[in-house]
Design a protein that fits this description.
single chain, alpha/beta, 8-stranded parallel β-sheet, about 15% strand
Length: about 325
């Protein structure tokens, strides 16, 4: 374990070594994995996906934390099948997390499959956004977005590593975000929420980063979202939730913004099947985040960067319990 990996344990994010070459390589690899998985699923569902019927259980109130998970197709399954599998494991989720590796697909796309609150991210090179290359496509996407459910949209989630690697500048990222937020406002849809999605690692002094570099401005940002992990599993620990999420939550409050947890998770420690140790940690984390009035919490039910999936019944039962509370 590198010094950087040790430092990230306190910050609560999946570890990535610093240094532009490594970050760029990992970024390309992860993007390729995501693109292959998600675009295959999107293609399979395109033109055939219909929004799910209205839910029968009560919709979470504005004061309730909505729990869900990232929907991640495996073994060639469609996105709709992946959603059904997640609902089977956890009960009908209140919110889903969707990743587009590039521009968002036309609605419904994978973001509209669930018919529920969705936290959806997409990517585009900031300079291309600022040059107006995607104006028409983005304006149409926002204009045709659902008006009967919340859509927390994220432009370029976790931009920190890309900026550190020199892929683009923080200034270009902020300005591109502001431009896109303008398109969202033009849609006059109050269910669209402009969401900045940063790593909890950014709030650790050892990261030598400042959240201010990635903040486009309070006039355009509606929600702050964070990706926070228990990375101490490698050393046999499940860290107290307050130590993982606390600093990021404090920042959102100081800004006067609601917050959500767009990614969170933990691999299992040695000798733990997940049914006891991780399940207990999940319960504590969910209880803590509910008490902090998180807008949403979506578990990273994926294998990118490690085996984070909740495959044991104990962990599934805990997550199902908190989904049912909403």
């Amino acid at each position: 374990m590198t010094e950087h990996d040790t430092q990230t344990q306190a910050a609560g994010r999946r570890p990535l070594r610093r240094g532009s070459r490594f970050v760029a390589t990992v970024g390309v690899a992860l993007a390729a994995t995501m693109a292959t998985t998600l675009l295959t699923a999107t293609a399979a569902d395109a033109g055939t996906v219909k929004p799910a019927k209205a839910r029968t259980k009560a919709v979470a109130t504005a004061e309730s934390t909505r729990f869900g998970a990232a929907i991640w197709p495996v073994n060639g399954e469609s996105y709709q099948s992946a959603l059904a599998r997640s609902d089977k494991n956890y009960g009908r989720m209140d919110v889903t997390r969707v990743f587009y590796p590039g521009l968002p697909a036309a609605w419904p796309g994978t973001a509209g499959v669930s018919g529920r609150h969705v936290v959806v991210s997409f990517k585009a090179v900031p300079k291309d956004v600022l040059a107006g290359k995607y104006d028409a496509a983005l304006k149409k996407w926002f204009k045709t977005a659902p008006t009967n459910r919340d859509v927390d949209w994220i432009y370029f989630h976790e931009p920190e590593n890309d900026i550190e690697a020199g892929a683009f500048t923080a200034t270009d990222y902020r300005n591109a975000f502001r431009r896109i937020a303008g398109f969202a406002k033009q849609a006059k849809n109050p269910r669209l929420k402009a969401t900045v999605n940063l790593m909890c690692w950014t709030y650790n002094k050892n990261s030598k980063r400042s959240w201010k570099d990635y903040y486009p401005g309070g006039d355009v940002v509606d929600v702050m979202a964070f990706d926070c992990y228990n990375t101490s599993a490698k050393s046999g620990k499940y860290v107290d939730p307050a130590k993982i999420y606390g600093a990021a939550i404090a920042n959102a409050r100081a800004l006067g913004k609601p917050f959500g947890i767009a990614e969170t998770g933990s691999t299992v420690v040695t000798a733990d099947t997940g049914a006891k140790g991780r399940a207990t940690w999940l319960d504590k984390a969910a209880t803590y985040l509910s008490a902090q009035n998180a807008r949403f919490v979506t578990y990273f039910d994926c294998t990118v960067g490690g085996e984070y999936r909740l495959l044991d019944k104990g962990s599934q039962t805990i997550w199902k319990k908190h989904i049912a509370k909403a």
